User: What shape does this take?
Amino acid sequence: MKTTPLFAASALKKTPSGIVGFDELTGGGLPQGRSTLLAGGAGSGKTIFALQFLVHGARDFKEPGMFVAFEESPKRIVANLEGFSWNVADLQTKNRLFFLDAQPAPDLIQAGDFDLSGMLAVLGAQAKAMAARRIVFDALDILLALLPDAAARRREVHRLHEWLLSSGLTAIITAKAGVEDIGSQSFGVLQFMVDCAVVLNHRVVLGVSQRNLRVLKYRGSGFDENESPFVIGRTGFDVAIAHASKRTNGKVSHERVTSGITRLDTMLGGGYYRAASVLITGFPGTAKTTLSGAFAEAACRRGERTMFVSFDSDGAEVIRNLTSVGIRLERCVKNGRLKMISARTITGSAETLLVRIKSLAIEHGTRCLVIDPISALSTAGNELTAHGVVDRLIDWAKADGITLVCTSLIDETSNGKTINAPLQISSLADTWIHLNYLVQAGERNRGLSIIKSRGTSHSNQVRELILSDSGVTLADIYTAGGDVLMGTLRWEKEGAERLANDVAEVEGKLRRVTLDAEEGELQVRLKSLQTELVAKQVEKTLLARTTASHKGQITKGRRRLRQLRGGDLNTPEPR
Amino acid sequence: MNRRSVFKFRLYTADGTQNSAQALANLTALCRSHLPDRYEIEVVDVFREPERARADGIRMTPTLIKLSPAPPCRIVGALNQSQSVLLALGIEVIAA
Assistant: This one.
């Protein structure tokens, strides 16, 4: 056997595992040219993890891989992988994947001590022939159990280790074990030999299966030490990471998208921001679905691909129900822009749901996403994880530029004064619209208010939400003497006000008419008086002239008389 | 079984390991005492001929394959428990 080369230069090199999320957790993947122990109970997903690592290498990185199966026959393993979109058979024929059946034969006769050299020799030759870069030893514990004593186990693990180091292959060794077993004797050796150890857990909490993964150690590298939930989907593993790294560099959009209700847009100062997360909370029946439906319809009208995930009812039901308020979604479904998902058919943990929603959304090319209601994620058994799931949902939507509208149910029994949305999403959401009922004068009316809307000026007013067969609209509410009036009361108040207006208007008209009449009368009087005045003036002038001529006549007459009488002309005139 | 039939063995060994050396020694000793002059042993080193080891499905070393007489059988280990080895190989113990 060759001596172990020192991989000083490559000590920190990492091989991408191809497992979504895992590479982020470990800052790049598995230690290159070293071995990783993958421990976990039965059915925790060890084999799938390991195979995904091989398939990824063989398919995407031109790194052929070998799979050593101690527990299951390779044929069965390949058959079991049909469910994944991996095309393992094709990789096998192209000689990029090699399966070695290393199951101990059931009729194996064992007489005395043995070692693994035979297998390692075969593998060595195969690795050389196919230029393998990756290798998986699946269920090494089965083989170790055959060895007679702890000393032999230690020796063989050591042999394997030496061989791996000299081969330079990046290895995964899986073993059935819980976290507590890993410290035990035979595993102890394994654990010290590997550079990286990962534990997979599969727990059932209140009947809901929860899977998670934890990196136990990673020599020479930092890693996320927390348990990270994961699910196994069609493409394989999906490890949930708390914060997508691309989020930090996410673009911030100033573009506005309509909420589907014109007056609501006005209240929000122009609509939602693109890629914002909008939370609509409310008691049952406060028209949360309607509001989100209006958003979806508007998005489809703009030609954006939209996905509507409904937990409460079937997609067709939602469409029918929304038609009654003038929101017509069926043509959006027909032209392929809208995808209705009935999430009741998806079973599993909150994590599974998230992964399903994500993959469906990506498949559809979704720009706008509605989840109705998001509180469905925190059903029994999911309380602990749901918060993280919603966190990641919002992160993911942001990073991908998807405008997200979530509705959330508020328990009607809870105190209506302190609105506490479940899952604490209220703090994560950018815009939070709250819908509530106002019970007054024997009727229930819907009120809408914006609790917060980051980065937009928004109305502080409560509006009444009115649903009619022609659509959804908002109406101003009346506040009278500190009371908020809605519904019939608002209508009555509006009516009363209209009436009062009418009366005032009529009164005004009447008054004007009277004034007009009075004015007219005065003007007539003014005119007649003016005429009279002119007459008098004429009369006066006339009088003056008459008097003057009369006087002249008298003077003339007297003078003539005196002449005639032959009197003194200079005699003063008698007065 | 024909008492005079020749036993053909193929022993896969890994050069340099104690188990393999032991197995070869044990097998030779066993044949000498129980099958004098009617045995053939072929020793194959897995590191030198991995292709043969693969073809024969060898996983652990040492592995002894009895090729004839029928039925063929294979035994894994250092062959130090001679009674069980003899039994497995179907060799009648010659009464001393």
